[in-house]
Amino acid sequence: MLFSFLVPVYNTSKYLDQCMESLLCQKGADFEIVLLDDGSTDISGEICDSYAQKYPDVVRVVHKENEGLLLTRRRGFKEAKGDWFICVDSDDYVSPDLLEKVVCAINKHNPDMVMYNFQYFNDEGEVSQSRLKIEDESVYTGIVKQEIYKHRLLTDDINSLCMKALKREIVDIDADYHNCGISNMSEDAVQVLPLFTNAERIVYLSAPLYYYRKGHGNMTSARTYKSWLASKTCYLITEKYLDIWNVSQELRQEFYTHNLEILSNFVRWLFAQTQDSLPEPREKIIQKICDSDAFHRCEKMYNKIYAQTTYLKLSVPVIIKKVKNKNIRGLHRFFQFESALLSIK
Predict the structure, then answer these.
(1) Given CA atoms 244, 80, 91, 11 in this order, what sign does their dihedral have?
(2) Mean pLDDT score across all residues of the chain
(3) Whole-angstrom distance, CA of residue 230 vs CA of residue 141
(4) Structural contact between residues 1 and 84, judged by C-beta atoms closer than 8 angstroms
(5) Neighbours of 65 (CB within 10 A)
(6) What phi and psi values does residue 172 have, to the nearest 5 degrees?
(7) Among 3.40.50.1950, 3.20.20.140, 3.90.550.10, 3.40.50.620, what is the CATH number of 2-213?
(8) β-pairing, 30-38 with 113-121?
(9) What is the DSSP letter of 113?
C-alpha cells in the first residue's frame, strides 16, 4: 500500500521546511511526497528541488505555471502513484503519527476515506481546537452517511481535503475543474462532493493529526466580494447533490435556510463598505441577487425554525424582504439601526 502526500507550493519558503520535516518522519507504510511548485516567485521551487536531490526515492517535484490551488491540487492527483492520497498545504504540517493512525484505521475498518481532526495555530504559537465534536472511530456507511451529508450541507467543518486520506478509486482524477467558476475560493467544498458520494465507507479519527496555519493572507474588500461570487457558484453546484444524496425534506429546508442566512451576512457586509471600495455599485449587486433563481428557491424553502440563532430568526426575514424589494434606503436604515443596537453595552 503506497501513500502519496500531495503538496501544492506557492511562495511558502518560510514554512516549507517545517511541512517537509513533518512528512519525512512518517512511519507505518511506504509513501511518496509530490511537491507541486505552482510557479513560485520566491525560493520555494529551489527548496523543493533540494529535497528531491536529498531524498530522490521519496520526493518528486513538478514545476508548473501558476494556476492556483484548485488546479494545482488536481494536477497532484494525476501525478500521484499511490493507492491512497493525502493532501497537505505547504504552510501547514502534520502529526508525526498521522500515517500510522491512518493505516491502522484502514486495516481495522476497510474504508474508502479516513477523516481526521485538526488544530489551528498561528506564527505566535497560539493553538485552537476545531469545532468538530465527532466520536472517535465513527464509521459512516449506508444510511448513516446522511450524517456526513448534513455536515457538508450545513457547515464548512469537514470540507478541507487536508483532513482526509482518500483511496484512489473514489477520486475523480480525470474530472475537469478548469471552468467550474471556483478559482481558489471554496475549492475544497466543491471537490469533496463527489468524494463523499463515491466513498461507500468513511471512518473518522478524533485525534488532531493535521495542523492548519491561520492568519496567513489579507482579506480585502475585492477579495471578499470574489469570495462571495465563488460561494454562490459553490452553492449552485452543491444544490444538485440534494437529489444525488436523496436528502430529507427537513434537511433541504435547513440547507436553504442556512444559505439565506449566509446571503444576509453578505448583504450586511455589503452595506458596511464604502461604495468606492466595491467593484460595482451596491444597487447593481442587489439587482443581481434579485435576478437569481437560486435566491428565490432559498426564499421559498426558508423555514425560520431552522434559524441558527434567535436574532437570525428575527433579522433574516427583514433583510431578505428588503432585498427582494430592492429597498436600498430601507437596508441602509436597518443596518444603521442594527449597528446602533449592537453598540449599546
Answers:
(1) negative
(2) 92
(3) 30
(4) yes
(5) 8
(6) -80, 70
(7) 3.90.550.10
(8) unpaired
(9) E
Domain ranges in the chain are 2-213, 248-343
pLDDT tens readout for residues 211-268: 999 875 544 455 678 888 888 889 999 999 999 999 999 999 999 999 999 999 999 9
CA distance 77 to 172: 9
Q: Each residue of 79-96: b (16+ CB within 10 Å) or e?
A: bbebebbbbbbbbbbbbe
Residue 62 bridge partners (DSSP): 36
How does pLDDT run across 150-189, given as a tens digit for each residue? 999 999 899 999 999 999 999 999 999 887 767 656 789 9
C-alpha distance from residue 127 to each of 172, 175, 182, 278 (Å): 34, 36, 30, 34
Locate 102 and state its grid cell: 491512518
Three-class secondary structure of residue 214 per DSSP: coil
Q: Which residues pair with 300 in a beta bridge?
A: none
